[in-house]
Design a protein that fits this description.
The chain has 120 residues and is α+β, with helices and mostly antiparallel strands. It has a domain at 39-119: Orthogonal Bundle (Arc Repressor Mutant, subunit A), CATH 1.10.10.10. Helix content is 29%, strand content 18%. It has three helices and seven strands. It has helices spanning 41-51, 60-68, 75-89, and strands at residues 15-18, 21-24, 29-32, 35-37, 57-58, 104-105, 118-119. It has a four-stranded antiparallel sheet with strand order 1-2-3-4, with no helix packed on it. Strands 5-7-6 form a three-stranded mixed sheet. The chain is globular.
Length: 120
Amino acid sequence: MGTGKPSGHAAPAGVFSFADVQVDAGAHRLTRAGTEVGLEPKAFAVLLELLAHPDQMLSRDQLLDAVWGHAHVTQATLNRLVVQLRRALRVPRQSTPLTDRHDVDLGPAHSPALPSLNAN
């Protein structure tokens, strides 16, 4: 269980580009095909946490601890934000199966179009 504070490691800095998506960490901006896509601040924080761990599967608890410090946040909140990220990144639902009630997969792990954005 977390301490109520986000973990101390820094979010990735810079601009990340893949497919037609650009993520500007410093400006807290996500664009797709040159059009800005609105994300809630916590959804953006989840995205940055995933970008900070390329080619890794992060558990829900890891994401909750990193972004919220696991304080007073339910997994349903994280699930809602993952859905928001899937929509923003246009990850097809059929390519993101739920392996069980505790796993969430944002997209194919080795897709050439998307970085490894997985949370389990």
